[in-house]
Amino acid sequence: MTGRIKALLPMLLAVTAAIGLGAPAVGSASPPLPKPTGGFTPHIAAPNGGDPSQLTTPPRLRSSLVIAVAFKGGYSTPASFPDRTEAAVGAQITDVLNPWFVDVSRGRFIGYSRGSTHQYVQVQPQAELCSGPWLNEVTNLANAAERKMGTDPDNYDAVVYYFKKLPNFPACNWAGRADFPEDGNRVLLNGDMSLRVLAHEFGHHLGLGHAGSQSCTDNFGTAVPLFSPLESYCQQNDYNNAYSAMGAHDPSPIRSYTSSQLATLGWNPGAVTSISAGAPAVTKVISRLEDHVAGATEALALFDGFFSDPPIWVEYRMPIHGLDNTGVLVVGAGERSLAIPPVPRPAPYVLDMTPLDLDHVEDVGLPVGQSWTDPDGLSPLGKFKITLNSADSHTASVTVQTVPSSTDPAPVVPNVIGDTIPAATSEIAAAGLVTGTIHSTIDCEDINRVVAQSPVAGVHLPLGGTVDITKGIERPGGCGIEQ
Fold first, then answer.
1. Phi/psi at 112 (nearest 5 deg)?
2. What is the model's pTM?
3. Closest by alpha carbon to 127, among 189, 75, 81?
4. Residue 221: CB partners within 8 Å, gap ≥ 6?
5. In a domain, 109, yes or no
């Protein structure tokens, strides 16, 4: 780590947003900002990438304009005045956010200039409070007020609108909102200018999506080991990665972005080792991402060479609690969109390596001495097996090898009609499937035996798929009584 960056760390340690964060301690995802109106021409200037020592031009400050917004009151918006000045918000950007950017980018991105102009502008939006039209109206009115005073917000890379915390209505339960770079240059701060919110919202401004997590349970709600990245029967939360500033949690110090997000921004060249399926087994020492050790490997990007999905990422991270505790080996599924149609900025998902501890947020790392094999690897070149050999507070030894992909056919649903319930359950389990809901129906000929099943026998299901069965039961009063 360079002396310049080291000098910034005390400031960082003493002190993350959606496209919306919720209240400062708890996040709640919000949709992207509505498309701005008024003919805005987007600023799409990529961050400075590459080795800082090899840059032909030094990293530059991007321009920012801070607008403190007051509301006159009326319609659905209560009157309020900003509780922070434009100068105070600008100072938070230059004195707190910018050093964080310098540290996280290894000096490749130095942040934003300070462009506040006066005390505040006063607007009176008429749309429903915190609705999409309201957000557009507020920013359009504020921009118009700025233009009357000789400042054109469209001339800035980022325009930050700060206003006092809005009423705690569901639609207003966010701390920040931001445009993606192709959509606009707006960053909205709802009474919160903390580093947590700034790092998150400006991450969106730079083009990053959220950072999420995945955990898996069986049909009875019991946590089970991870079977496959982003399986449909697992639970994905695109806002729940505690190891990224683009997640919703609030660890201290504020987290870097994930290695895949740093790669998207061009901030970790030379720090990522790519490994392809079918390559010989390799053991690598990974440096803790937060340490920024020059020349060290900070992440592994595993490509199966078969599917077009993004790679599996392996990185070693500072634990959520305790700077000097043994780190956490985090396995992520890369940026993938689970939405239909896909969202423009999908989330990288951290995969829970220790699901049985019921903690799906912080304790997700692979334990020392244990291995994880990607069960989703169907490439003819094989699938990845990751083993954490050893770890201390700053480095981890990881072995990556390719093991044969499964060629077993998909399980076939057996015919369990007429079986007793225990026999049917055993036969379904032997086929690699799980007994789902057991329904009941009056059937005096087959009491406590299976009289129906779904799906029917002969259907192919994924490994671990569910088969529901229906058993016969007596009529109330007994089957020997005619009714």
1. -130, 145
2. 0.74
3. 75
4. none
5. yes
217 is in which domain, residue-wise?
212-403
Question: What is the side-by-side order of every strand in the sheet holding 466-473?
Answer: 434-442, 466-473, 450-454
Alpha carbon distance 373, 378 (integer Å)? 12
Q: Is residue 335 within 8 Å of residue 260, measured between CB atoms?
A: yes
**Sequence letter at residue 276:** S
**Residues 183 and 293 occupy one common structural domain:** no
Do residue 432 and residue 386 come from a single domain?
no
Residue 144: partners with Cβ closer than 8 Å, 6 or more residues away? none
| CB-CB contact of 186 with 180 (8 Å) | no
Q: Pairing relation of β-strands 158-163 and 186-190? A: parallel
Answer yes or no: is 201 within a domain.
yes
CB 377 within 8 Å of CB 226: no
- Any domain includes 408: no
Residues 386 and 440 in one domain: no
Q: Which string of b and e fits 243-280 if b means at least 16 CB within 10 Å?
A: bbbbbbbbbebbbbbbbbbbbbbebbeebbbebebebe
Q: Which amino acid is at 96?
A: V
What element of type H or E holds 100? helix 98-104
Pair 124, 237 in one domain: no
Q: Give Cβ neighbours of residue 214 (< 8 Å, ≥ 6 apart).
A: 226, 229, 230, 234, 235, 236, 237, 333, 349, 350, 351, 352
**Tens digit of each residue's pLDDT, the chain (483 residues):** 333 333 332 322 222 223 333 333 233 345 556 665 544 444 444 455 545 445 555 678 899 999 999 999 888 899 999 999 999 999 999 999 999 999 999 899 999 988 766 788 999 999 999 999 999 999 999 999 999 998 999 999 999 999 999 988 888 889 999 998 888 899 999 999 999 999 999 999 999 988 888 766 655 555 555 544 545 556 677 787 888 899 876 666 788 899 999 998 999 999 999 998 888 999 999 999 988 888 899 999 988 765 445 688 899 988 876 555 677 888 877 766 555 555 566 677 787 776 655 555 566 788 888 888 876 655 667 788 899 999 998 999 999 998 876 655 667 889 999 999 999 998 998 888 889 999 999 888 899 999 999 888 887 777 778 899 999 998 887 775 444
Two tokens, residue 332:
């992520």
247 and 127 inside one domain = no
- H helix runs in 337-453, sequence order: 421-430
* 261/280 same-domain check: yes
